[in-house]
Design brief:
CATH class of the largest domain: Alpha Beta
Strand order of the largest sheet: 1-3-4-5-2-7-10-9-8-6
Radius of gyration: 18 Å
Number of domains: 2
Low-confidence stretches: none
Shape: globular
CATH superfamily of the largest domain: Hotdog Thioesterase
CATH topology of the largest domain: Thiol Ester Dehydrase, Chain A
Number of strands: 10
Amino acid sequence: MRALGGLYARALIGAALPHGDALPEQKLELPDAEIDREHLAAYDRVCGFRVTERLPPTYLHVLAFPLAMELMTARSFPFSVLGLVHIANVIEEIRPVAATDRPSLRVWAQDLRAHRRGRQFDVVAEARAGDELVWTERSTYLRRESGADGNAGRPERKPELPADAGVRLSVAGDVGRRYAAVSGDRNPIHLSGVGARLFGIRGPIAHGMWMKARCLAAFEELLGQPARYAVSFKQPLRIPARAGLASARHGDQLVFALRGGDGDRIHLTGSIEPLR
């Protein structure tokens, strides 16, 4: 795979170039990925997981990320990656993946469609151990556009959100840099105040996938079984920060919300439910 530094340089150059109007059809593959134990342990620590031989559900996102960047920075991709907003992520862990596995990863883009603020599409990733499908992911990205139809897109489900924060989180100011070091996602908005202000943000914000991983780490006793982990990213979490993680059960489903320190601002909503 191309080094991520080169892909970010390509993203900067490509931002000024003309793009098409359709998603590319190709699929990118990484066969037999080897799990680096030290990297896995570093990821576990920065996200709050226990260090074990089992991969957290979100870890394969990190291995698939360079493939996604390769895809989204190509000349054939219709949008500049620098203008995209990650708005949702759904992971299905069909069976737990161990550090001894050698998963083969495949990534592609699909389903370009209207959104009330522009257009959205999915970057899909899957992991196989041999011929066995063990993990899938769908990341939804938004391209904001002026003149968008405010009524377009699929209607949003508004789940009943838990209100009381059962878990209090203190988010350090360097978590953006620490997560960037293990994920390779070095978007400037996460690294420093200067980098964030270049993109019109008052200060650095936490990575969305770090927020998802940190929330799942708080429910680690529920992990390790075939399950669907879905989140919607709401408002950015400026760091350093204090936040509260509230949760509630609805039958087999656990719903949760990451709220700001004042309890009013919602940064992320999500759910965990067993696969049937």
